[in-house]
Amino acid sequence: MFFNTLAKNSVLLNCQPISHCDAAENWQVGFQDPATPIMEGIINLHHDLMFFIVIVSVFVSWMLARALWHFDKVQNTSASSLSHGTLIEVIWTVTPAIILLVIAVPSFSLLYAMDEIISPAITIKTLGHQWYWSYEYSDYTNNSDEAIAFDSYMIPEEDLEFGQLRLLEVDNRLVVPVNTHIRVIVSAADVLHSWAVPSLGIKCDAIPGRLNQTSMFVKREGLYYGQCSEICGINHGFMPILVEAVSLPNYITWIYNKLDD
Ligand code: CUA
User: Fold this and answer.
1) Where are the transmembrane segments (predicted)?
2) Is the CB of 230 inside a 6 Å radius of any atom of ligand 1?
3) Helix, strand, coil % in the chain, rounded to nearest 5
């Protein structure tokens, strides 16, 4: 029932019987479901790192507990004269270095994958303002040569409809097609903001006077909720981001309607 309400609120009425809803949950500890290959990569890297973190923490804790137990003044009344051992020092220097090298391999491949922008089909410009986002689709122009541009404000609590998420719903969503390489250009008009959508694996600083670039390839239709992630003033918590991923035909219909406005 909740999802149906969301689907009805979708710009393309009744086209989607089910709309996925990717937002944070109360007391959430883990990740949201990934919707882009990049977010899948981030989650995989996290799991890879957890393997080493668990082994290292258990080993270090065990050594610490052992040292505290065996070398207190009751158990060990006469101190050892041992001051160093070359072999053990080589081992405890080289082993962490090797672990870091092993971690660096998947880490760098993910880093470069995130940086890579594969000949995008669409470029969207997003500008942070105090306190709302504005979006521009400069690829398309109407008869008067105007590009699509609109502001996206949070819907205040008293205006929420049933099924809409508090502090996360916006009046004008960023609509994107699925399975398309999209370039996102991020900047700000006044102070620092950050355009962040967890399920898409995006967190890009919006800096006045500077263009930052990121990309997305959304694999499934749905609503992806995010929030400004750079303290930008009193209403920092009230400038959410809502990306609506739709099928390509629906996206084209949406573009046509926007150009007609
Ligand atoms: Cu904009 Cu925080």
Assistant:
1) 49-69, 90-114
2) yes
3) 35, 25, 35
